[in-house]
Design a protein that fits this description.
50% of the residues are buried. Helix 4 packs antiparallel against helix 13 and helix 10 packs across helix 15. Helix content is 54%, strand content 8%. By secondary structure, it is an alpha/beta fold. The strands form two sheets. Strands 2-1-3-4 form a four-stranded parallel β-sheet, sandwiched between helices. A four-stranded parallel β-sheet has the order 6-5-7-8, sandwiched between helices. The N and C termini lie far apart (61 Å). It has a domain of 235 residues: Rossmann fold (3-Layer(aba) Sandwich), CATH 3.40.50.11890.
């Protein structure tokens, strides 16, 4: 099977492809990827990503490499430890990986599998359909991330791990799915990391010490179980190094988002999303990821110097609350309609998230996680995110991506939040219904007319302000 052009498109050198050929053959056979899938990928990738940029090609190569490592980890003598997406702090999986990089492979496999199979090969929804026939029936708005995992397990794309660590602090679908994988599909009984959601709406940034200490003890219990699996002690130094690794990755990501402050923007935000989702995985190619961020940042600076424009200068600028990680069509349709997509608001570090009240890597990890607004008062922090980011980026409007199958997102009232944004900030809002990990029911193409009409409204408002 010939896949040389595919891997070259994803940043591999010919020598690397030859060195990895036996591993690629094995992994692709396990994933049932054949010539037609490769042909589709050669068409899909240029549609989704700007492969003229070396940094983008490197990012896609990291995704492929991580999936190969996942598929072959057990065959190559490594222990497999899974977290859950969303949920388990990526710093913890990264700490396990840092402690024993040659003995263990850690992953949120549903992210890896879903992103690669859809963004690159355009076939992810097959897994969702399989899951609907094996325990997560259609019509119940099951989480598409969980459906991806179940579908991958049924198809034997996701190997059975040695340990599964599950966090169910804010999402009840994740532990329910993990329990089914344990009872029905041979996964080990998960180690659950839990906490109490007992804060009022306006208290999310006032985290009691008891909550921090309790979550830290839960995480430590999970790490102790991982120690038994890998035979290596996981120390505070490992946790601290893991946190540093993720901070470095986040710095690289934010440096690229900083390019979007330029007018015109030199890089489509669709090319930045792969970094965001790699950030949440304890990847073996961490240094490659940081290098790819640096490359992409340099290429963006070079484009600015040359006057390159994704969208013409002066175009309306739109914040977005979230976008599906497997579908860039929303971004591309918006850009073709003359809109600049500038920032995923959940990445903006508002002041309350920077507070530090405890010492020590594990306690700091727990506090940082609890200051994540997905866990404590998601509604008001969305307001704060949008207030701060809209001012910083001089936004003209907001895309509110309402994910109907996500417990956290679906619990919000998008109509009320749209009213708040309109009344308080004077910004028009477009609510787009969608799914984080599937495009069967909602896609960019299905929203094209609404996006184009919204673009007309923003251009008219911008023109009126300038007169």
């Amino acid at each position: 099977m010939e896949y040389t052009n595919l891997f070259k498109m994803c940043g591999y050198e010919l020598e690397e492809i030859e060195n990895e050929r036996s591993r690629i053959d094995k992994a692709f056979e396990m994933l049932e990827l054949g010539p037609k899938d490769i042909e589709r990928a050669l068409e899909t990738i240029p549609q989704n990503f700007d492969i003229e940029l070396a940094g983008v090609r490197k990012l896609l190569g990291i995704w492929l490499e991580e999936l190969l490592d996942l598929m072959l980890a057990k065959e190559e003598g490594k222990k497999l430890i899974y977290g859950t997406a969303p949920g388990f702090p990526c710093e913890c999986l990264e700490a396990i990986r840092v402690a024993a990089p040659d003995k263990v492979y850690c992953a949120n496999p549903e992210f890896l599998l879903g992103t690669v199979l859809d963004s690159l090969f355009g076939k992810h929804d097959e897994l969702v359909e399989v899951a609907e026939g094996y325990g997560l029936p259609p019509g119940f708005a099951h989480c598409s991330v969980g459906e991806t995992k179940l579908g991958g397990v049924v198809k034997k794309y996701i190997p059975v791990p040695d340990l599964a660590i599950c966090m169910g602090i804010f999402c009840d679908q994740t532990p329910e799915t993990e329990e089914m994988l344990s009872e029905v599909y041979g996964f080990p009984q998960p180690v659950y990391v839990d906490n109490c959601l007992d804060l009022n709406w306006d208290e999310w940034d006032k985290i009691p010490l008891r909550k921090i200490e309790y979550l830290a003890s839960q995480v430590r219990r999970a790490l102790d179980r991982a120690q038994e699996i890998i035979g290596v002690e996981i120390t505070d130094d490992h946790i601290q190094k893991a946190r540093v690794n993720l901070f470095r990755t986040l710095d690289g990501l934010m440096s690229i988002y900083g390019l979007l402050e330029n007018d015109p923007i030199p890089i489509s935000v669709g090319n930045i999303m792969p970094i965001y989702y790699l950030y949440f995985n304890p990847i073996a190619g961490r240094e490659k990821l940081i290098e790819a961020c640096q490359t992409l940042h340099q290429e963006g600076r070079q484009r600015i110097a040359k006057g390159y424009a994704v969208v013409p200068k002066g175009a309306p600028r739109v914040l977005f609350t979230c976008l599906p990680n497997i579908d860039n069509s929303v971004v591309h349709i918006a850009e073709k309609a003359g809109l600049v997509m500038i920032m995923q608001t959940v990445l903006w570090p508002i002041e309350a998230q920077r507070k530090k009240t405890v010492q020590g890597p594990l306690l700091r990890l727990a506090e940082t996680y609890l200051r994540n607004p997905y866990l404590c008062g998601y509604g008001p922090i969305n307001m704060q995110w949008i207030r701060e980011t809209s001012r910083h980026y001089n936004a003209d409007g907001v895309f509110w991506y309402w994910m109907y199958s996500c417990r956290v997102q679906a619990a919000l009232n998008p109509i009320a939040l749209r009213k708040w944004i309109t009344d308080e900030l004077g910004l028009p809002v477009l609510i787009l219904e969608g799914d984080f990990h599937s495009t069967r029911e909602y896609s960019g193409e299905a929203s094209r007319t609404r996006i184009e009409a919204f673009a007309e409204v923003l251009r008219a408002r911008k023109a009126a302000k300038s007169n």
